[in-house]
Amino acid sequence: MAQSVFSSDFDKKITSMSLKANLKVILKNIATLGLLLLALPFNALIVTFSLVLQRFGIKSKNIDSEAVEPKNILISGGKMTKALQLARSFHAAGHRVVLIETHKYWLSGHRFSNAVDKFYTTDFPQKNPQAYIQNLIDIIKEENIDVYIPVTSPVASYYDSLAKPVISEYCQVFHLDVEVTEMLDDKFAFSQRAGSMGLSIPKSFKITAPEQVLNFDFSGETRKYILKSIPYDSVRRLDLTKLPCDTPQQTEAFVRSLPISPQKPWIMQEFIPGKEYCTHSTVRDGEVRLHCCCESSAFQVNYENIKHSKIREWITHFLGELGVTGQLSFDFIEAEDGEVYAIECNPRTHSAITTFYNHPEVANAYIGQQPQVEPIEPLINSKPTYWLYHEIWRLTSIRSLTQLRNWLVNIWRGTDAIYQLNDPLPFLMVHHWQIPLLLLQNLLKLKGWTRIDFNIGKLVEAGGD
Fold first, then answer.
1. Helices 156-167 and 129-142: crossing angle, nearest 10°?
2. Alpha carbon distances (Å) from 395 to 20, 281, 348, 371, 384
3. Per-residue DSSP letters for 303-367?
């Protein structure tokens, strides 16, 4: 009898907790939808004004031209701003662009861009690789595609590499081979490869069990360490807890809270204090053809190109030895002594490519056949890029007039990465179609999320893409 009463009370407690969690999810989704609804009239006014100006023949300063040999370009990652930017660059150079995304993101606001001629959706590559490859083949045949340029999520990079040998029979594929992608995606394997070339990297250890960290002798180390999941983790990737913690108990509690296993290995990496940078590089046969470097942060939504010769030399050396073709992004730390260390490499397009929004040579950097004297970089007159809705949210953290003044300066001197005067509809449709529909889907499923990423065009959630 006592056991039955205890069980009943326990069930009631669990039910109560579940109801509270569901209520929190419901309120969060509804409140966010309400805020977006408040912003809708202002966004619609901006877009309507832009369309009126277009009607009277007023365009932005972006250069439109006719390609000598127009090609049909297939670009994936249609929910993300970086895919939109590439679509605009190829369209401005006179090429025809077909944009694709997975079925989940049929609602992509970028499909409404003037730069996009056709839009398709595909199966999730990680769920059904063969169906995904067949989707690509069907689209390539249907649209007579000449070049496929994957703009991938962290997970999809591998599957596009897996597809490359098959779809290369139908068109040119501007992507890395599968063994290179696997090596670069593995933070530890990448550090080992770069170190073998004599390039500077932080000390790193592959971790497949918590005991490896708990038994590690930190006493002889001059710097702290951080743990990072080798498989992509959209939530935990922002956790920079320094090891060892203040007490052994705190260290153990933190380490054992992480899903470390042989199937989900982690890297324990030396934490080097300094300034962090992120980069994007477009490379063909080991030749870096397009490059940008920006100051970085944990949640990156601002990009301004900075010339950094040491980082560029590091990348040129590494990619030159690899001899690869594709798009890669690197994270660097510049230590107090000026030495630069590559923290990791991601075998995919970086959102920093938005800094090329007004550069006329982007398409040529990808598909031009003639060697370049040096990589193209963002134009001197290009403005820093930001996402206005992220910047508006930042207003909630401003606590002084100085902070407000700095915020206003950043808005004034920069430009929104999605909005363009001659292509305004994505600015409306991403913020008031794509994201609201994703929020509604989560509301109906009583599913929570960590934050909204307007740059990537998704809700960041545990176990997400």
1. 50
2. 29, 32, 31, 46, 19
3. E-B---HHHHHHHHHHHHHHT--EEEEEEEEEETTS-EEEEEEESS--GGGGGGTT-TTHHHHHH
Dist. CA 215–CA 62, nearest whole Å: 57
Does the pLDDT of residue 377 top 70, yes or no? yes
Can you tell me the distance from the alpha carbon of 331 to that of 310, in angstroms, rounded to the nearest whole number? 13
Collapsing DSSP to helix, strand or coil, 264 comes out as coil
Amino acid letter, residue 320: G
- The H-or-E segment that residue 74 falls in is strand 72-75
Q: Which residues contact 72 (CB under 8 A, 6 or more apart)?
A: 95, 96, 98, 143, 144, 145, 146, 147
Six-digit token pair at 259? 């899903």
| 3-state class (DSSP) for residue 280 | strand
Encode pLDDT of 45-73 as tens digits: 999 999 998 888 766 555 555 666 899 99
For the segment 263-276, what is each residue's pLDDT rounded down to a tens digit? 999 999 999 999 99
- ∠ Cα 189 154 441 (to 5°): 155
Retrieve residue 348's tokens. Answer: 């995919």
Whole-angstrom distance, CA of residue 204 vs CA of residue 266: 10
d(CA 218, CA 401): 43
Residue 274's Cβ-side half-sphere holds a number of Cα atoms within 13 Å equal to 20
Q: Binning pLDDT at 50, 70 and 90, where does residue 298 land?
A: low
